[in-house]
Amino acid sequence: MSSSTGTDGRGATAARGDDRTPVLEGRKLSKSYGHVRAMVDADFELMPGEVLAVIGDNGAGKSTLVKALSGAVTPDSGELLLDGEPVSFHSPIEARAQGIETVYQDLAVAPALDIASNLYLGREVRRSGPLGSLLRMVDARAMREEAQHQLDSLGVRIPDVRQPVESLSGGQRQSVAVARAAAFGTKLVIMDEPTAALGVRESGMVLDLIRRISARGLPVVLISHNMPHVFDIADRIHIHRLGKRIAVVSPQTHTMSDAVAIMTGAVEPDEVGGRSHYDERAHRRETGKA
Ligand SMILES: Nc1ncnc2c1ncn2[C@@H]1O[C@H](COP(=O)(O)OP(=O)(O)O)[C@@H](O)[C@H]1O
Ligand SMILES: [Mg+2]
To answer: Which residue owns the Cα nearest ligand 1 atom 27?
Structure first.
């Protein structure tokens, strides 16, 4: 940060948390499993308030990247910066303590527990830190009220938070997992294929939830295979291929077929772009072509 004293007279520390400093940044992250190079000098940038989609073929290394960002994997090399400050995580607990929450694709909730307990799962014992005010509420009633409030404020319609999670549909369960992440993620929320196990209508619920979280100003990283979902919701799209980021595009500049072509290696990133996903949709509507 030595060169960041700008002409606006603000010092280096004032650059922290401004609109141009990534909330989370990865520089040249690498990780090998034996001889498999799952991540090779991968860069990553999440800007304040955005929904950033991460796309890539199976085995491209998306999950490994996300695990490095969320503390589940410690990279062999590379740097991680949170609000411009170097950080390193040796477990998901350490990342969570810094405000990074992750939702995994496998509906990661405790089915037999009720919804309120699921929202506070793993939080009961922590006493210090920014969440102290919430965590002081140890009585079940206050926890239920707060859980109901969280769900209501995110538009998740669940009649009674005393219901066990196993009585919920897949979409409702995933909504609980996402609401939990939104409640505790003070810096960002990461979702690895959150709609992979869901039907069309239920995926819609989760996408709406992502929109509401993002409207609160919390940036979201969304890993997804589903191009319509990605183009529906993302501000920017990070394209991952063979263990690294090869391009960042947006629905304003690239079509779905552009993104897929880059992702699969059919074209070089600079060979496509200039016509937006929205232009193409309008064109299809006008010409009636599918
Ligand atoms: N724990 C692991 N042990 C060995 N190989 C792994 C492990 N996790 C991922 N890999 C390998 O790393 C590569 C990237 O995997 P992954 O990050 O899961 O990709 P994606 O999420 O894009 O499908 C793949 O070749 C995968 O088999
Ligand atoms: Mg994966």
So the answer is: 59
